[in-house]
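Design a sequence for this backbone.
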């Protein structure tokens, strides 16, 4: 592919990669204002974030397969249109139910984008240049994921929480116009004659059971939903192993240890870090008394570091074994999470900023090399599905992160609205959550290191 065409692909993929995680994280900063306007408790409020993630997770793998069959650019285009329209719907919502409904539609659009974006980028760049491109794209993902609270804070402080959703409209329109007038190529993958509708249904129900069950723990109903989710997962795996054209090719996991361990490590990475901005947003606004704009500026310390180091990590992954770089990143991340488990009422803002900067370094050194390792371990015909699996790992990890945070807050604070009477309990719940995340992240380091350092045969 010509250099100009590759650059257009990188620009489009990077803008899309910024847009969707920006939406996922920026809303966290506005949750107190949304909760106040719609009189929402802490648990219901968490579903403003979780509904978006759940919808993305349910549709990522199916759209990855659809993109391989009908064209990845086509699905990507439909995704940006859906995302922009849903953003407008969120900006004019007049009830909690309406807002959550459009968040689900937003998640649908996000699934179309993430299930095809990395696949298009990987197809456009040869393997020797792929690390650099993925590094830039990863910088965009994490910039959106962690710059969301800072930009969202400023927008919320100046124009109200609805402006966060409205901000997606011009950027999304730019992406659509670039696709329409500049992106001429189309990319296909494994063109199958059918589609696994039943497997897709099982997959969606399984994720719904798991996510809802986690969100209402420690109630007995939550345990029951988790149990049914586990049963569905067993049934889903058995179905996918025997069906002729599965929605999720299980051989990618069975026959490729590098692929499997890289995805598990990614799940742990997202599962231990996504809720950080949610927790610190509550801490800084409720306990430290900062407004949304001030809170956003404090949280900005993380994405600035991440953007710089993600590009460096991507370049390094073209020269150094990804296993070493990403494992180092997870270790640095675990140290940052451990330091945050000591926050209290008297904790200085300098301490928070330094911890966030260290976290940014860790996330940067993990993400790009890990994605490079995953995409390089499979054949090109699987790029769409693999891109979707990476997105699914990310989103399910994010859901797990929010579910754990909501569970711990629910145990300590309950389902009542957050008020000065339970600030101490909120702080205690956050410290426990950060400690749990730190321990899980250390486990992720060992899983990441367990990837063989020999050259892998790509999955057939």
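Sequence:
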């Amino acid at each position: 592919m010509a250099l100009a065409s590759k650059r257009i692909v990188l620009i489009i993929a990077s803008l899309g990669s910024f847009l969707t995680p920006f939406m996922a994280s920026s809303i966290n900063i506005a949750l107190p204002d949304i909760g106040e306007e719609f009189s929402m408790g802490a648990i219901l409020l968490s579903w403003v974030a979780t509904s978006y993630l759940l919808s993305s997770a349910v549709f990522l793998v199916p759209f990855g397969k659809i993109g391989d069959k009908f064209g990845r650019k086509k699905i990507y285009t439909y995704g940006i249109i859906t995302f922009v329209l849903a953003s407008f719907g969120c900006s004019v919502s007049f009830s909690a139910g309406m807002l959550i409904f459009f968040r689900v539609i937003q998640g649908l659009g996000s699934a179309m984008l993430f299930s095809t974006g990395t696949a298009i980028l990987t197809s456009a760049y040869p393997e020797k240049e792929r690390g650099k491109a993925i590094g830039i794209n990863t910088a965009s993902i994490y910039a959106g994921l962690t710059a969301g609270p800072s930009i969202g804070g400023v927008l919320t402080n100046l124009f109200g929480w609805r402006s966060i959703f409205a901000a997606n409209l011009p950027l999304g329109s730019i992406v659509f116009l670039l696709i329409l007038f500049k992106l001429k190529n189309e990319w296909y993958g494994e063109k199958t004659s059918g589609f696994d509708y039943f497997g897709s249904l099982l997959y969606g129900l399984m994720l719904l059971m798991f996510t809802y069950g986690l969100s209402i723990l420690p109630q007995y109903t939550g345990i029951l939903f988790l149990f049914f989710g586990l049963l569905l997962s067993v049934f889903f795996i058995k179905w996918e192993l025997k069906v002729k054209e599965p929605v999720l090719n299980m051989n990618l996991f069975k026959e490729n240890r590098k692929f499997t361990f890289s995805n598990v490590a990614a799940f742990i990475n997202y599962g231990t870090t996504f809720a950080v901005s949610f927790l610190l947003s509550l801490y800084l606004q409720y306990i430290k008394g900062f407004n949304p704009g001030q809170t956003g500026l404090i949280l900005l310390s993380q994405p600035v570091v991440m953007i710089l180091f993600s590009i460096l990590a991507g370049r390094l992954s073209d020269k150094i074994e990804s296993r070493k770089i990403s494992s180092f990143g997870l270790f640095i991340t675990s140290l940052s999470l451990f330091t945050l488990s000591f926050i209290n009422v008297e904790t200085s803002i300098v301490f928070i900023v330094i911890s966030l900067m260290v976290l940014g370094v860790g996330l940067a050194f993990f993400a790009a090399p890990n994605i490079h390792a995953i995409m390089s371990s499979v054949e090109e015909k699987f790029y769409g599905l693999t891109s979707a699996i990476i997105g699914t790992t990310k989103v399910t990890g994010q859901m797990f992160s929010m579910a754990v945070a909501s569970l711990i807050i629910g145990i300590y604070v309950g389902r009542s609205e957050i008020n000065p009477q339970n600030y101490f309990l909120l702080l205690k719940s956050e410290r426990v959550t950060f400690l749990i995340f730190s321990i899980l992240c250390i486990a992720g380091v060992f899983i990441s290191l367990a990837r063989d350092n020999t050259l892998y045969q790509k999955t057939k």
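The first helix runs from residue 3 to 38.
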